[in-house]
Every structure is written in C-alpha cells, then in structure tokens.
Amino acid sequence: MIDRFRQRVLAIAEATAPGWERHRTFIEETTAPVRDRLVDALDPQPGETVLELAAGAGDVGFAAAARLGESGRLITTDVSPAMLDVARRSGGERGLAGVDYRVMDAQRLELEDDSVDGILCRFGYMLLPDPEAALAEARRVLRPGGRIALAVWGPPERNPFFSLIGMALVRRGHLPPPSPAEPSMFALADPARLRRLLEGAGFAGPRLEEVTVDFVVSGIDEYLALIADTAGPLGLALRELDEEERAGIAEELRGPLSGFSVPEGYAVPGVALAASAS
Predict the structure, then answer these.
(1) Model confidence, pTM
(2) How much of the chain, in percent, has pLDDT values that exceed 90?
(3) For residue 8, what pLDDT is reported?
(4) pLDDT digits (tens, 9 = 90+) for 59-94
(5) What are 12-42's pLDDT values in tens digits?
(6) Do 53 and 84 form a contact (C-beta atoms < 8 A)?
(7) What architecture does CATH give domain 2-277?
(8) 176 neighbors 218 (Cβ within 8 angstroms)
(9) pLDDT at residue number 2
(10) Domain ranges of the chain
(11) CA separation for the pair 156, 253 (Å, rounded)
C-alpha cells in the first residue's frame, strides 16, 4: 500500500509542477510567514550543509542558503523531477550557484549517515505515506546537534481555503471522503500526533507553534484557478469537471467565501503548524 501511495504522490507532483511554476510568486508571498519561521527556527550557520525535502519551487531552501555563505551547501530535493526542474529554474533566476539539486524520496534518503547539519521541509511530511520512516531517515542523516524544521497544515476548520473546495467536491461526488489512514493535506494537523512522530524518530523536545497566513485572491475565478493548478488531489479533481459542473461548484462556494470579502476580493485565512527539534 505504501508503494501505491508513493506512486500517487509522485504522479500528483508531476501533474501540478507546471501550476506551481505559474503561481510561484503567489505561493511564495502567501506562505512567506511559514518560510521565515522555519528558516529562523533552523538558524543555518555559515559553512553548514542544509537539506530541503519536498522542496517544490525551492524558496525555503533558497532563503536558508543566504545564511550559509560561500562555504555552505544547500541540497534541494523533491521526489518529482518536474518539480525539481521548477526549483532549478527558480534558483537560476536568483543567481544561486552551487546548489545541489537531486531527485530524492524523503522516505529513502540517498545520503550518508551524519551528513547534514539541518533539514527543512514545508508542507511535505503530511503527504508522505510513511512519515515515520521519513522522520527516521531525517534523524539518520543529521549530524550530532543537527536540527530539523518542518511545517504542516493545521486542521481543516482553520484552513477554509482548502477545506471549502474539498467539502464541495466530496458532497458532489468528485472525491471520496478523506480517510485518516491515508496521507493528505491535513494528515498531521494534530499537534500531539506530530510531536509523537518526532519523538519516536529520536528528536528531543520538539517545539511546535502556529503560523497564520492569508490567501488573498481577486475573486472566485482566481480561487478556482489556483486550486486547480496547485492543490494536489483537489486540483486534479477540479480539472476533470466539465464547464457546467465547475460553474456549479463556483456558485456553491460564493456564499461561504463571501464571509472573507475584502476590497481586493477575498482574504481567506490559514494556519500552519511549524515544528523544530534537534
């Protein structure tokens, strides 16, 4: 079953990579509070080696690279070759040299024991079929005194940007109801579970805190476009709808989204859970 989920994660990442590149600026600006909290928690030092897992467009690792200096090293990884290409192009645009880009599964790290000083992962562990194995791998490759900083999404009721469309797709029969046994956007939203996973992997005294974000969109059309292009299974399900059904989804969401109206359109709140440990 884990291998089946692993292939599904890869297929979804490959399919959404072009959308992540199109909306890269929006994603970076919206999730900047999470990026900044993770990099501050990791506190990269000049000369260290930092590994970013499930890097997507790579902006979290790139922010860390600015603190590593010329003697430091950033290893940017993703299970998806297409997503890693997005990161590689983004790094090139930023003029970053010496970044090591590698296709790599976070659950099977192709690195030596005690080989990195820090690990970053924003919104990756919750999507893995075996987060226990992934965190054990992270512990294995960290040097003594090494640190990890990761983020996952909080519970669905505090992340309506995703949960509203998710519930609409389930109600209308386009997605099955979420299963707590399967990886998903909210699979690690319970702080107690996340703490247990970190401690079970050998991390001492995990520190957890909430980070708030706001998804600001101009209207329902931009909202649906962002979901379709970037939101994993939600996006793929939305892409498959015909024009009439997509219009029905839009109409169903206008009422709930109106509660987040601002002069610019909608400002939909979100909450991430950031964790760090050594």
Answers:
(1) 0.95
(2) 91
(3) 81
(4) 999 999 999 999 999 999 999 999 999 999 999 999
(5) 899 999 999 999 999 999 999 999 999 999 9
(6) no
(7) 3-Layer(aba) Sandwich (3.40)
(8) no
(9) 56
(10) 2-277
(11) 16
Pairing of strands 261-262, 207-217: unpaired
Q: Computed from CA positions of residues 220, 180, 155, 128, in that sequence, does the dihedral angle turn out positive or negative?
A: negative
Measured in degrees and rounded to the nearest 5, phi and psi for residue 72 equal -85, 175
- Confidence band of 264 (pLDDT split at 50, 70, 90): very high
| Residue matched to tokens 């890097």 | 55
Task: Measure the CA angle with vertex 191, ends 143 and 231; round to 5°.
Answer: 90
Angle CA 104–121–1, to nearest 5? 55
